[in-house]
Amino acid sequence: MTLEIILFIFFAGTAAVTSVIMITRSNVVIAALFLILNFGSLAGLYLLLNAQFLAVTQVIVYAGAIMVLFLFVIMLLKPEHEKTVSKIPGMKIFSFAIAFMVFVQLAYLIFFASQSKNISQNVEASINAGTIETIGTELFTNYILPFEAAGFLLLAATIGALILAKRKIE
Amino acid sequence: MSVPMEYYLILSAFMFIVGVAGVLTRRNAIVVFMSVELMLNSANLSLITFSSFMGNPVGQLFVFFVMTVAAAEAAVGLAIIIALFRNKLTLNIDEINILKW
């Protein structure tokens, strides 16, 4: 076993287990903390896939900024432990059955109907694609318009969040 | 790279399905929102896998934009949740039904 396989098993196992724990805890704070762990292990997987810039961005934006926002809102609202009973009876069994069926279909597609067997990874190109240099060049030449639009989107979201969360709109 | 592509994709599919199950079963609005974030991240993992295995940086650019939109979505969504909690004093999505008729 090479180091890469060991790291993949470690990060993938962490991501899978923490995602399941996240949706099964009734305490919201614990769920949020496990989601942070999940995002952290995803950053490790991105590093294994040679996407260095996105691994760092994942830690800063997702595990840092977005989850801090979530934890702040949880702290502000202090939600009570939810009652597990849904209004629709049998909803839980139904949704798990649906999820399981879809997962089996996806697994079948990925393993047996896949065209991806023809893809052999070119390590050189893969490493080159993930560097901040390549992404920055693409971002400021071919994708400059979406980049500016993303800036406007963030500004609009900031103003919208401020207005929505204000106590009274004059 | 010694880990084949299928394993990354199956992990991504598993996380997406867990997110779907979370949205369907949980009643707390914040947990539902966190499950949506989980689904976004599993899609990101798929995009980065394809991008890395094909040596094409465009998939990673797309993930960058998805992250931007996710940050904006989290800010606005949490503001909506705060506004809802102020009006209804609950986070249970079964009781938040003011848009139903």
Tell me what you see in this structure.
The complex is a heterodimer of chains A (170) and B (101). Helix content of chain A is 77%, strand content 0%. Chain A contains seven helices and no strands. Chain B is mainly alpha-helical. Chain B has one domain (5-88): Helix Hairpins, CATH 1.10.287. Chain B is built from three helices and no strands. Chains A and B meet through helix 1, helix 2, helix 3, helix 4 and helix 5 of A and helix 1, helix 2 and helix 3 of B.
Order of helices and strands of chain A: HHHHHHH
Rg result of chain A: 21 Å
**Helix-and-strand structural type of chain A:** mainly alpha
Please give the count of helices of chain B: 3
**Order of SSEs of chain B, N→C?**
HHH
Task: Label this structure with key terms.
heterodimer, A: 170 residues, 7 helices, globular, B: 101 residues, mainly alpha, Helix Hairpins
Topology:
The complex is a heterodimer of chains A (170) and B (101).
Chain A lengths: L2 H22 L3 H21 L3 H26 L13 H22 L10 H8 L1 H10 L2 H22 L5
Helix pairs in contact in A: 1-2, 2-3
Chain B lengths: L4 H21 L3 H26 L3 H31 L13
